[in-house]
């Protein structure tokens, strides 16, 4: 499940300590622009992705997270995050670049996330470092995190089927689409009942116009996405 992971640096002293031992570090004196495959690139500006189709390194910006904290956004409301009660434990099973995990962590949640793609996961860890937050970030299948989860909320944001608009805007969504482990297509019926065994609240992110898997207990709607919330009590 590890795949390949290549990190290009011009200074080997920059290699982060959490870079996995099985990854490959290539030292480059000069930047090369035609990388044969998507890889990590580390320079004085931080970690980035380079590779086919990218004219410049792709970077995540802290503002992608911090602007989402203004006003209590849909994700925080769907997860039941209250200003006065920090420490909610959230398991983010499909962690991606960690943008949602970071929003939750900055709002005071204890976040555990799994992400199957090592390259995407490294970008998430770098983002957490820059934001000064701790998120338990595992390189493993979502099923493993689910089976061990002791959480108040299980958050599911799988890849949407291709074709229509996505939840994350622009280049970030495109990068996810290219790099993500699309795996088997997500079937909510396989996940929600199991998730409710591990947490009293399960939040599933969908595109605004997607059909429900099963009528949720309630939903929180954003402009382009919808959060379906399933709660264990009263079911
Ligand atoms: C839509 S993205 C999540 C975006 C994320 N919420 C964010 O804020 O960046 C879905 C992610 O799930 C990952 N993924 C797909 N199947 C997985 C699995 N079985 N286990 C762990 N991660 C998985 C993909 O690699 C992708 O990065």
**Low-confidence runs:** none
Averaged pLDDT: 88
Please provide the ordered H/E string of secondary-structure elements.
EEEEHHEHEHEHEHHEEE
Helix content: 25-40%
Strand order of the largest sheet: 7-6-5-8-9-11-10
Please give the count of helices: 7
The name CATH uses for the topology of the largest domain is: Rossmann fold
**Total domain modules:** 2
CATH architectural category of the largest domain: 3-Layer(aba) Sandwich
Shape: globular
Ligands bound to this protein structure:
S-adenosylmethionine
Distance between the termini: 36 Å
Task: Give the CATH level 1 class of the largest domain.
Answer: Alpha Beta
Number of strands: 11
Question: Biggest β-sheet: count, sense, barrel?
Answer: 7 strands, mixed
Strand content: 15-25%
CATH superfamily of the largest domain: Vaccinia Virus protein VP39
